[in-house]
Amino acid sequence: MIVVTGASGHLGRLVVEELTKRVPAAQVVAAARTPQKAADLGVEVREADYDRPETIEAAVRRAARVLLISGVEPQRARQHTAVVDAAKRAGAVLVYTSAPKADTTEAALAADHRATEEYIKASGVTYTILRNNWYNEVYDPAIAAAPQLGAVYGASGDGRVASASRADYAAAAAAVLTGEGHDGQVYELAGDTAWSRADLAAEISKVTGKEVVYRDLPKDEYAGVLAGTGVPAPFAEILADVDVNVSRDWLADTPGTLRELIGRPTRTIGDHVRSLLA
Asked: Were both Cys, which of 28, 99, 101, 241 would link to 105 (CB 3.0–4.6 Å)?
């Protein structure tokens, strides 16, 4: 049995859908903090609240493999330990969605992922770590607003991002969860092509026929722009820090591992822009 935590979220839902293409639905469990939100997935649903370890124990009962989709709370590293511990007690293989270069990057976003990876490795559980690069969908608000604003804003300079679609990363997770030979592996997953914010602006211009340029801002000013769009101030600071690290090509590598796992090219940012705006 394969248990997917965070199954009601954007990535979790796609992973469950991918799994049911590969194995019978009876072999898949969707674990979610609010089970009702995963009731439409066509598989067994179990409650799994990272802040209530007893629900995690019940959720992974009889699991052979567990996908730990990282949480979004400020204390997620602490929350993740409950899933790691429960998976070990169940004798299950643990697959974790982490951040790119989590063990070496200075990006603040990666700190919780680094702590979780360290805990996983020290726990003795059999594991696979999927270090997902950025999702194309992260840029949806900026892409949607750009034709009216005439600009894409950021603090990444000429730095590049090798993003891919959530569906690409979901397919990779499903491939690992249903495949063999992945135990103990740490996979850096990224799209086939790295692009800059200027490239993104050019793609938007091409699709809409409107002039869109890239406006590079200082970190604090960009954080202010994000906060002005409704992003909570602490998270806006983290996203601005991500951009500064993008300027250092933190997310630029294209190792090809994602393409190999899913058996097809990854979705380009250009394709994503066209599907969103055309």
From this structure: 101
Residues 236 and 152 occupy one common structural domain = yes
The sign of the dihedral angle between the CA atoms of 114, 172, 162, 260 is: positive
Report H helices in the chain. Answer: 10-22, 53-59, 76-90, 111-123, 140-149, 166-178, 197-208, 219-228, 233-246, 257-262, 269-277
Is residue 172 one of the residues assigned to a domain?
Answer: no
Picking from 14, 17, 79, the residue whose alpha carbon sits closest to that of residue 48 is: 79
Co-location of 11 and 97 in the same domain: yes
In tens digits, the chain (278 residues) has pLDDT values of 999 999 999 999 999 999 999 999 999 999 999 999 999 999 999 999 988 999 999 999 999 999 999 987 667 888 899 999 999 999 999 999 999 999 999 999 999 999 999 999 999 999 999 999 999 999 999 999 999 999 999 999 999 999 999 999 999 999 999 999 999 999 999 999 999 999 999 999 999 999 999 999 999 999 999 998 888 888 899 999 999 999 999 999 999 999 999 999 999 999 999 999 98
**Distance, CA of 17 to CA of 22 (rounded, Å):** 9
Q: Is residue 175 included in any domain, yes or no?
A: no
| Cα of 52 vs its chain's centroid, Å | 23
* Three-state SS at 222: helix
Q: How many domains does the chain have?
A: 2
Nearest alpha carbon to residue 168 among 128, 141, 133? 133
Domain that includes residue 67, residue range: 2-132
